[in-house]
Each structure stands twice: as C-alpha cells, then as structure tokens.
Amino acid sequence: MWGSGRFAQLCVIVLTLGAAQENFCSQPSLSRFDGFPKQLDAAIYWFGPEDQTEKATGSASKFYDPSRPTMLYFHGWTGQGGGWTSKCKRLTTRCHPDICPNGGGQLLVNSWLEEGWNVGFFYWDQFSDEECARDAEQKLWFDRGGDGIRWKSFDPATGRTEYRTYQENLDELSVSDMCANSVKMAMGSFKGSQVRFVGHSLGAQLAVRCASLLHVEDHAAAPQRLALLEPYFSKHSHMYFFGCHAEVTTDEGMGDFAAKLTVQFVQHLWKSKKVVTEVYKSSQLTEETGEESPYSELKNLVENGAVGGVEKALVGNLASGMRAEDLERSGTMVKYNPDWCEGVGSSTMGDVEHVACRHCAVMPMYLLGFGRAPPALRPPPTERSEPGSALSSCMTPSASCTDGQLRQWVQRQLDMAPTRQSWLQIAGRRTFDEVDDAFQLDPSIEQGFQLGLRSANSLVQKTALELPKGQEFSLHALLTTPWMLLSVVGFVFTVVAAAIFVKHCQRWPWQGDDSDDELSQSPNTTRRVSMYSREPEPSPGYDPLLASQMGSSFSSTGSRTVLVQPMPPLLPLPAVAGGQLYRKPL
C-alpha cells in the first residue's frame, strides 16, 4: 500500500501531466470566445468543420440550422491542475493530447457534421473551475449560500486570477437553470427531427437536469436521448482525486442527493416521454468491480428468489466517487477498457497513473463512434433477428444506434429488473481505433432464454420503431397536433355512443323495469373501480419530474425550483444557508 503522500503525488502528476506546459492564451485562441476568460462566458457555441466555432445567437447561422438534428455536449469538472481558466483552456471538438493518443488533434465530430447534425457545446467551465469537484457539483443543483454563484476570472494581460459572483438573473438559481435558459435562447426556433444531450463526468448530471427543465415546458429543444459518459457523483472523501485535499464531512455535504435525484429524473423522463438513456463507463472513478456478474445476479434471483438476489446486489462506492447503480438499471450500460491510455500522458505503469485518461477516454470514443457501425458481440448471437432490430443493427449500444434500437435494449433491461444487463469490452482495448472493438453481453441472449427471459429477448429481435419527435403523447401534443386531437375526439365519441347503447339495452322490456333500482339498492352491491382509473394529472412546473417520495421537499415557482427543507428519509438535502462550509480545514 502506498502512503497518502505518495498517492497524492501520483494523482497530481496524473491530472497535470501533458497540461503543465499547455497555454491557450494566444490571441487566435482567445478570439474564438466572447470575453473568455476574463469575462463570464457561460453559453452555447456551435461547431463547424476543422473545429471552427461561433457563439449561439438564437438565429440560423453558419454552423446552426434549426431544421437539422442537434447534439449538445456538456463537459465536466475543470478545476484539475490549478484550473483551466487560468490557462485559457477550453474543450473543443479537436481532442487534447492529454485525452487522445498520438499527440491528440483528432477531430471528434466530423461524422456528425457530415450527417447533417448541428453540434454545440454548453460551456460552464468558469463555474466548474473549483479546486474540489464537489463544490462544482453543488452549483448544478442550487446556490449554496443564497447570494449568487461564484465563477473564476483570469486576465491574460495581468495574469490575475480571481473569483467573482454571478447575481445578474434571479431566475437562475443554479447552473442547470442557466443551461435551460441558454438552450431556449439558442434553439428557440428549433424544428429539427431530434435532440441528443451528451454529458461527461459532472456534465452528465447537468445534461439530465437541464433536459428535465426543458421537458417540463414541452420545449421544442427538449432531448429525446441522453448519453451519460462516466457519470460522476461525489460523496465521501475523494482521496486526493478531484482536488478535495482537506478532510471532508458528509454531515452537511451532498451525500447521495445528486445521484438519487438524477436517477429519478431519468426514470420519470422514460416513463412520461420515453427519453432513452445510455450510460458508458471507462474508469474506476465511477465503477467498482463486483464479485458477481449480472448473469450471476439474475441466476441467483431465479434460484434463490428476489430477497437473496437483492441482498447480493452489486453496491460500489469508490472513495473518489459514488456509483449510481440504479442509473445503470434505468438505461443501457457499456463498460470500455481503454488500455491504450498507458501511452497517453504518462510512461509509468498501472491503472492509477492513467486514471485521468481513462476517465476522459469515453468522451472521444463515444463521439467518434457516431460514424461507425456499433461494436460486435462475442460470441455472436445465434438467435434470428429482424433487420433494423437492436440485436441485428445495434449489438452494442453506441452513438450510431438509433433511438428506437436503444429503447429496445432499455426495455429488455427493465423487464429483467432488479438485476441489470451490461456490455463489457473484451477486444480492441489497446487500440484507439474502435474498428476492432468487441463486447460481451451479460446476460447474453442465450443466457436470457435459459433464465426464462424469452419475452425480454424478443423485444430486441424485432424491427425497432422510431418515435417521431413531438408525437409522444402529452397534453401539449394533443392540443397542437390535429390528427391526434381528431383521433382522441373520435375515440371519446365512440366510447360515449357505446355507453349510451349499452344503457339503452339494459332498459329493454324483457329485462324488467326495476332491475337497475334493485341492484342499486342492494346492500351487498360492490362498486367496481376501473383498472384504468388514473390519478389527477400533476400540476405544471418542476414538481412533475420528482418522484412521490420527494413530496413537500420542493416548492415551485414557474419552471424553477427552490429547495426549502430537508428530504427525510430518502433524500437528505445538504444545508444551503449562507456561510456554512462543506469541508473542514486541516
């Protein structure tokens, strides 16, 4: 075992190697962004060929066409190695050398652009530039002190770095609120076929919450698909990962608040809007290897019952981050093994030295996967499947799979709950080129049949159906889509007519005039309740995206939410009063 000093030293090397000599403060680099890094520049930028950029204005432009499908990317924490702001560093569509092999420089979204997609990045890097990742994470959900959200400023002319406070818009209580407003401004006239949000690390939480805010309003730019790359949730001590060097207490910290709320948002978006979620992992920061495989989990459920299976469920909680296992059961789950990271940023051996690369590796691999066929399964499935089905055209979830194909895999996952399915990379781990990648599905299709999952397997063998954007059933769609409105009116008319006919038949002479009265007066009569009865529709606002357990823990004003009291017993809410600290000094 290493001493804490040696461990901290290694981690500092990992997070700063390859970036120590980088300096992006040249005039060509600075001219790409509006006032960054001296002025706050939290906004959406559109990207074009050769990594060209332009700031979103809300109108059609050189790199944005409101009639085209759109992908928005959400980066994660930027406080490592002294912070990116003081280096004038920003993530773009050209891969950095501390993330991609061979010196970096790979263009990550060429295939997206060639297929006619708009590609945008939402930058919140000046807010996420905190020494401790948890301090950045809190900003996604609330204003900790209630007096504004701090951001980092750097003046390249003087070399001065300082923190300032954002207080300009009282409607923006968190970075997620800023995100939703930025999307509505940039894509107010959007009429394309689909929107996809892709979030990495802390950016995965941001993508989910921003999406939920947009769906509350049935906004045209609300996404139908969420790709969560290495979703990170802080909890206990970070063991010097992500900059939390001081002693950390969870008494007033985030706890599992962010993870549980993110899961509930994902689950509600699936149930109400059929928004599909795909999860990808590539490092130990968000994953702990359990003793049992998903197949063993399911086999244990079949043999020993649900109680035994739940008791043996995989629960991982690395000191560096919390594993949100329920999130894995709410979508597709793919695990990459980027052993090629051994040649990036460090010449030392072992997984720990390359943890930064492994944590970031899934980002370029996902983006580059859009222009390639999904990775193969090994062993290949022997069961027949229809063309266009998940099993034939999307054996392993990837950026190039259609939303409908991923929905089939998600439904298979839900049908085998409470266990989980996952894909594990078993080939192509040492090469950055994904053409030789292969994965193992657990439980496989064959194992699924052995365990009695015939109905779950059949879901992925049929041709996938795509849901046209805007045609999911909702009150907004009902009132604004003529054919849906006419269909519903016709259905209601038919039901009413049938009810009148049945009632009329019951009063025909040969049935007797008093039968209804006698039935209604009988003391033994049992009133039947329709199995299709529904609870009242939730009121407009943010609350519909919260599970029932959260009840009175939230109050809504319009589309924003104010955290008003702790959430016993499921989601204990961090203290947010002004002046309260989240880390104890050394």
Automatic annotation (TrEMBL):
Keyword set, alphabetical order: Membrane, Signal, Transmembrane, Transmembrane helix
Organism: Durusdinium trenchii
Protein name, per record: TPR repeat-containing thioredoxin TTL1
Signal peptide: 1-20
Gene3D superfamilies: alpha/beta hydrolase (3.40.50.1820)
Compositional bias segments (type: Low complexity): 548-560
Ranges where the record places region Disordered: 512-560
UniProt KW Transmembrane helix keyword: yes
Highest taxon, organism lineage: Eukaryota
